[in-house]
Each structure stands twice: as C-alpha cells, then as structure tokens.
Amino acid sequence: MTRLSHFLGFAALAAVTSAQAAELPAEIKQAGALKLTVNSTYAPMEYRDPATNELVGLDVDLANELAKRLGVKIVWSETPFAELIPSLQTRRADFIISGISDRASRRETADFVDYLGTGPQFFVMAESEAKAATDLCGKKVGTTRSTSFPVEIEKWSKQNCEPAGKTAIQYVPGENSIDVRNQLKQGRIDAAVQGSETLPYAQTQEPGKYRVIGEPFAKGYQGIMFRKDDVALREVVTEKLTAMIADGSYKVVLDKWGLGANAVAQPMLNAAPQ
User: Fold this and answer.
1) How far apart are the first and last CA of the chain?
2) Are the C-beta atoms of 110 and 227 separated by less than 8 Å?
3) Is pLDDT of 20 > 60?
4) DSSP state of 129
5) For 31-58, how does the pLDDT look when each residue is reduced to its tens digit (9 = 90+)?
C-alpha cells in the first residue's frame, strides 16, 4: 500500500467515526453479546493461563474493554488458527481479534482495522552457533504454516541468501507457535520465526532458552478482521478503539503485556503493506 493510499484509508476511517456516533448492529445489541473466536496458543496475545486455565492475553483485554464500552458481553470460543477466517465467514464469530495479520490476500473477503505493529523475527536456541540472520541460510527454519511467515521467509531467503551464493533456507511447517518451539527444542529445526510481539513473552517464560537474531525482517500490522458487509460493526468498534487510544486505556493494555513499542497512533483501515 502506498503512503497516499494508507493516508486515504485512515482519513476515510476517521471521517466515518467523527461524523456521527456509530451504532451497534441491532442483532448484536438485542443479543447483548459478541461472539468472538480465538486461537489460544499465541501468548501473549491469547492463551490459557497454565495456573488458572483462564483465557488471557493482550487481545482478550482489548476485546473485553471494547465490549464494556459497547455495553455487551463476550461469548468466547476457541479454534485452530487455520479455522479463524472460516469462523468469521460462516458467522460463528462477529469479528476476529486473535493475533491475525492484515494481508492483502485476506482483504478479498474482509477488512482489517489495524491496531498493533508486528513483524516476523528469527530466533534460535541460546546455544546455537548462529550469530547473524545470514547464518541461517541453508538451515531448517520452522514457522506456523497458516501465517504469512512462510512467504516472508522465502522472500528474505531470496534477497539475502542467494545473492551471497548461499543455499536457500529450508522452510519447515508447524501447526502453531507452541509446535514450532517444540521442534526447535527437540533439534528438528535450526531456527524458528514468530511475530515479534510473541518473543519477549516466550523469553520470560523460559529464561535463557532462546536468543533472537537481528530485527524483524518485515513490517506489518495485526488487525481486527471484519466481514466486508459488516460496515456498521466495523465502524462502531473503530470508534471505541479510537477512544481507547485517546484516553490511554489502549496503552495500559499494551504496557501490561510488554508491547508498548508495538502501539499504533490511530486505528488504520487495511494499512499493511501489499
């Protein structure tokens, strides 16, 4: 997306939310509840607290605050990451807020209100000999198969390994971030890729286990995903999220989970790069 189209998308979003207070769709207001589906394996965005089995995380906190401001409760359900988009399309979920990246290919049937900066990042076991990202050329690198990361790894490999006369990275698929980290710990892969928002948490949970290599090698956003025909719902959620950013409650949630640096200044419509 160009800088101009990024601006126009934001301007259109701002115009909608400032011209008139948006209304919650009648069926949701009547039910008094939002149906939200998450993949609870992506800490600290959404996961089951091992001590309490309670569903917690940054997305959970944001959604709960949004629901409070909308005057409704949330009926949560859980599903594998690959089923998040189908759950939206089949209306099992009213919208998706579950660590899902805004991608051009996903915008054919949905719109994203982007609320968090993200980017894929390499990491290895602490004892790995790899010091720089190019040390991973020719190595086995795992990531979750249903994310954008396999494509990003391939793109990075073509830009950095092949020009240097090195062998391309060997991508190894995983079911989710937990599976990928287990493959890494078992020595089945040499390195892994996760979103930059998840690694600080993983490192605090297993101190000294992992080592991040370099900076995120692509830039993107996570977004709240809406069906394209659910304009009213998208507008009212955007309005409430804009208010949360303005009054500081958004920052409180991000800081709680150690992700203040991933904050956005305003919600953005379909703003991730193409």
Assistant:
1) 5
2) yes
3) no
4) S
5) 999 999 999 999 999 999 999 999 999 9
Query: Tokens representing 130?
Result: 């790899």
pTM: 0.82
Which helix or strand (DSSP H or E) is residue 66 part of? helix 58-70
Q: Which residues pair with 120 in a beta bridge?
A: 195
Place of tokens 């790894």: 153
Q: Would you call 48 helix, strand, or coil by DSSP?
A: strand
How do beta strands 46-48 and 41-42 pair? antiparallel
Residue 101 DSSP SS3: strand
Q: Helix 58-70 crosses helix 249-256 at what angle (to 10 degrees)?
A: 160
Domains, the chain, ranges and CATH? 3-118+220-269 (3.40.190.10), 120-213 (3.40.190.10)
Among candidate residues 17, 24, 19, the one with its CA nearest the CA of residue 69: 24
